[in-house]
């Protein structure tokens, strides 16, 4: 039995689909408010709970052999990115788990002081690696599925908002490829107790993205390039009324102000270990946007 947290998220629901296609039994950890109909329809066992509650985590972990931690947090890095994962690892240890797959983030090991999600991910990586449990840690760059809404907006308006340096490099990964890597991690020998940077096959500049949209929709892009000080201004104002949101914006600012790309040798190692060619961003978008 696989336990998948974040089962209704962009990665999680693709992971559940793949596992069910391969006839594995899956327990999907969802909230009562989550949109989990599709997972149920595919034959996943639905576990309703909240990852902020240790009791729910303990109950969800009973009888599972594999855990895939794929949940995210909007602004509660301490409880969701950190504590919930520590509790999942403790339960995994207590239950003699066979393999734990943790979705971290590219750059988790760079010591970004102002980004609570990155700090939480790094602390969890360390805790998992020292736990004695079989593990695979995946550090994805940005997900291609994040761009689908922006692409739809571009289709209608031709507009693209680019905050920060247009020359920053990125290795956006096909969310479907990432899900496949997640699922294969528990059985590919080269993935045992390893940490992988996960990106797409090409290093893009952020300014390449509106050009890709432009090719797909055959429309000239209108790029609005806003400087990072816009985010800083917003953070300053938010900090006065909502400190949690200010912290979340710290992670957002870190994402916008740094480069998140995988080296060629990292991509080659990934393709070799998991034995399939990674998909480009343009190919992913064309499949989903049917163009
Ligand atoms: N998106 C990216 O570009 C990116 C890049 C690198 C790494 N990652 C990492 O990849 C992982 C998955 O990202 P994603 O973009 O697929 O996530 P996502 O689409 O934002 O989904 C988040 C998931 O977490 C669940 N969740 C949130 N709070 C919860 C709670 N209190 N109890 C139970 N479930 C809860 C959500 O459930 P609901 O459906 O109920 O909201 C949802 O299923 C995250 O760990 C993220 O840090 C993402």
Automatic annotation (TrEMBL):
Name of the protein in its database record: SDR family oxidoreductase
Keyword field contains Zinc: no
One Pfam family matching this protein: NAD_binding_10
Signal peptide: none
InterPro entries the UniProt entry points to: HCF244-like, NAD(P)-bd_dom, NAD(P)-bd_dom_sf
NAD(P)-binding domain span: 6-187
Origin superkingdom: Bacteria
Record flagged with keyword Thylakoid: no
Key words of the record: Photosynthesis, Photosystem II
């Amino acid at each position: 039995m696989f336990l998948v947290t974040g089962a209704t998220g962009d990665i999680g629901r693709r992971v559940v689909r793949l596992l069910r296609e391969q006839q594995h039994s899956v327990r999907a950890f969802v909230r009562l408010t989550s949109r989990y109909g599709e997972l149920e329809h595919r034959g996943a066992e639905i576990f309703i709970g909240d990852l902020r509650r240790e009791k729910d985590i303990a109950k969800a972990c009973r009888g599972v052999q594999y855990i895939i931690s794929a949940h995210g947090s909007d602004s509660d890095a301490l409880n969701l990115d950190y504590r919930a994962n520590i509790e999942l690892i403790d339960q995994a240890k207590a239950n003699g788990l066979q393999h734990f797959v943790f979705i971290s983030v590219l750059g988790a090991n760079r010591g970004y002081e102002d980004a609570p999600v990155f700090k939480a991910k790094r602390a969890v990586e360390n805790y998992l690696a020292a736990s004695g449990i079989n593990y695979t840690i995946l550090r994805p760059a940005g997900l291609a599925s994040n761009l689908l809404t922006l692409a739809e907006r571009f289709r209608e308006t031709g507009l693209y908002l680019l905050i920060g340096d247009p020359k920053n490099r990125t290795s956006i990964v096909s969310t479907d490829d990432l899900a496949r890597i997640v699922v294969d991690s528990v059985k590919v020998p080269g993935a045992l107790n390893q940490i992988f940077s996960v990106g797409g096959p090409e290093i893009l500049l952020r300014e390449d993205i509106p050009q890709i949209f432009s090719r797909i929709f055959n429309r000239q892009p209108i790029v609005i390039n806003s400087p990072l000080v816009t985010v800083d201004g917003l953070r300053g104002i938010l900090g006065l009324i909502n400190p949690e949101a200010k912290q979340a914006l710290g992670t957002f600012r870190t994402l916008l102000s740094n480069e998140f790309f995988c080296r060629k040798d990292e991509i080659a190692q990934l393709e070799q270990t998991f034995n399939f060619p990674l998909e480009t961003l343009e190919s992913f978008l064309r499949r989903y946007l049917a163009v």
